[in-house]
Amino acid sequence: MSASHQHHLFAVSVPKTSALVNRLILGVDFTAMNTTSVLALAFAIGLICGLRSLTGPAVVSLAAHWKWIDLHNSALSFLDSTAAVIVAIAAALIEIIVDKLPNTPRRTEALGLIARLLFGGLCGAAICAARDQSMLIGAVLGGAGGLIGAFAGYQARTRLVRVLGVPDLVVALIEDAVAIGGGFLIVSRF
Q1: Taking a C-beta distance cutoff of 8 angstroms, is the pair 90, 61 a contact?
Q2: How far is the C-alpha of 75 from the C-alpha of 153, rounded, in Å?
Q3: Which end of the chain is more exposed for a tag (fewer CB within 10 A), N or C?
Q4: Segment 34-79, tens digit of pLDDT
Q5: 111: exposed, middle or buried (C-beta count within 10 Å: 0-12, 13-18, 19+)?
Q6: Which residues are within 8 A (CB) of 2 and not within 5 positions of it... i.e. 6 or more apart?
Q7: CA distance 106 to 99
Q8: pLDDT in the model for residue 186
């Protein structure tokens, strides 16, 4: 593969969702997004990081790269680079695989919580930066979302396995789909 072809590998343009789709899906037209909406999305992307700590950065990086969100005038502009997209996607895929291994520590242990706090904060800051809101407030909300999502996701997963009587893998795959789909739904609101 040539260097120029590699450079354009992730340079596809993906269209934004329309205001009509936003209204149909969430009942809100985010094209006229207010501060409260931005802050809610910053918290929500943190919740996604609580489920899968590296899925949030992957979808935020892709959204920036695809120009769904604009980070050019912020300290987080590096997230839209091809290198950031490749690293973020690779890391997210590795996390999804490792999550299914029997010896993987719980997300509620210290290392898992720290990752969710940090990556939730990064993603929340990016969401706020994309709409010229306070990156600090976005980081706090995203980090809080990451911590809450970690505990809520853990409880939901363990209870669903018990109630449904299915293997953990089944619920884990559903959780993957929720994290990926939810992450893309959040970043497509711009």
Answers
A1: no
A2: 30
A3: N
A4: 999 999 999 999 999 999 999 999 999 999 999 999 999 899 999 9
A5: exposed
A6: none
A7: 9
A8: 96
Query: How much is the pTM?
Result: 0.83
Amino acid, single-letter form, for residue 178: V
Structure tokens at 142: 């995203």
For residue 142, which of 18, 27, 39, 20 has the smallest C-alpha distance?
A: 39
Contacting residues for 130 by C-beta, under 8 A, at least 6 apart: 64, 69, 70, 71, 74, 190
Q: What is the CA radius of gyration of the chain?
A: 17
User: Around Cβ 17, how many Cβ atoms within 10 Å?
Assistant: 18
Tallying the residues shown for the chain, one arrives at 190
Instruction: Give the integer Cα–Cα distance in Å for 162 and 48.
Output: 23
Helices (H), 73-134: 82-98, 110-130
Give CA–CA dist 96/114, Å, rounded. 18
User: Is the separation of the CB atoms in 45 and 120 below 8 Å?
Assistant: yes
